[in-house]
Amino acid sequence: MTYDDIDVTRPAERVCHIRINRPEVRNALRTQTLTEIADALAVAAADETVGAVVISGDSKAFAAGADIREMAGLGAIGVWQSGRPAQWQRIADFEKPLIGAVNGYCLGGGCELALACDLLIAGDDAVFGQPEIKLGILPGGGGTQRLIRAVGKAFAMQMVLSGMRVDAATAERRGLVAETVPADQALPRALEVAADIAGNAPLALAAAKKALNQAFETPLSAGLDFERQCLALLSASEDRNEGIAAFLEKRKPVFRGR
Ligand code: CAA
User: Which InterPro entries match (predicted)?
Assistant: First the structure.
């Protein structure tokens, strides 16, 4: 598949890297960009040799939000019919681990894309924010719902209602980011984390991601029930037998996604 707004590479075994490539507009996410990201994730989902995906921008910006020029041309019906919600849903539905490597501006829709990742590695130059309120709108790519789940009510309210910017250290302290590293280490560290994760059993990874995300969707009892069902299901997998055998035989497991 060929893309205009992203580059897709395979920098390490079982790891796919999607780089947003619109530096002239700080990687603003026009609808085509979101669609290409969702398309690349669909390709990665179907590829058994991909265990995890890293998404990044460049040194100046992860992504500076929705493309404001594109937005300016859309009225209410245009926004309603833009197809963006469907692309956001395709990204959220990706079943393999998705790791964001964040440098520079991570604003608006860019911050929402980061929130749609499973975990974030941020450079110490990263700047997070939901500045939509300053444009007379609100986050529309899941920001109000995912941010509050990530950082809690008080800080999410402060971020969304003020449009304030948040530095990497604060983002880490607030639970938005898993790790903060020197700016030039964000992508290498994210690739390293992805390679480590991608070495685990694919079915267990998919089940664990789904079970963790259930915590945001269901009451505790239903989430615990789902977790138990996943465990029972995984107990029927070849990879579970391989994992246990490898432990007992003191060797590295060879997982096959079955
Ligand atoms: N959309 C379109 N173009 C953008 C853009 C965006 N979100 N962000 C930056 N650009 C463009 C600028 O217009 C500029 O283009 P020109 O060279 O043609 O003038 C170019 O990128 C470089 O931008 P700056 O000169 O402003 O670069 P900077 O380094 O001084 O500042 C910035 C960078 C802080 C990210 C600043 O550009 C900025 O504030 N951008 C907008 C951030 C924003 O408001 N994002 C929210 C968008 S709305 C949203 O996301 C909607 C939603 O969820 C529903």
Answer: ClpP/crotonase-like_dom_sf, Enoyl-CoA_hyd/isom_CS, Enoyl-CoA_hydra/iso, Enoyl-CoA_hydra_C
The ipTM of this complex is 0.98
Give residue 226 CA to ligand 1 midpoint distance, Å: 42
Reading the block at residue 24, the tokens are 């002239």
* 161 residue type, one letter: L
- In eight-state DSSP terms, residue 118 is S
Number of C-beta neighbours around residue 141 at 10 A: 27
pLDDT by residue (tens digit) across 135-149? Answer: 999 999 999 999 999
Site to probe by mutation for ligand 1, drawn from 5, 24, 25, 26 as the one with most ligand atoms within 8 Å of Cβ, is 26
- Average pLDDT across the chain, whole number: 97
Q: Which atom of ligand 1 is nearest to the CA of 134?
A: 44
- The Cα 117–Cα 124 span in angstroms is 19
The dihedrals phi and psi of 86, each to the nearest 5 degrees, come to -65, -35
Q: Where are the alpha helices (H) located in the chain, listed in sequence order?
A: 31-46, 68-72, 76-80, 84-92, 109-116, 143-151, 153-162, 168-173, 186-198, 202-214, 220-234, 238-248
Ligand 1 centroid – CA 88 distance (Å): 20
Handedness of CA 28, 32, 35, 36 (dihedral sign): negative
pLDDT in tens, 61-111: 999 999 999 999 888 898 888 899 999 999 999 999 999 999 999 999 999
Q: DSSP assignment, residue 254?
A: -
Q: Give the relative orientation of helices 109-116 and 143-151 as an angle to the nearest 10 degrees.
A: 60
Q: Active-site positions?
A: 66, 109, 112, 132
Residue 26 Cβ contacting ligand 1 at under 6 Å: yes
Strands 52-56 and 15-20: parallel
Take atom 27 of ligand 1 and give the residue whose Cα is closest.
26
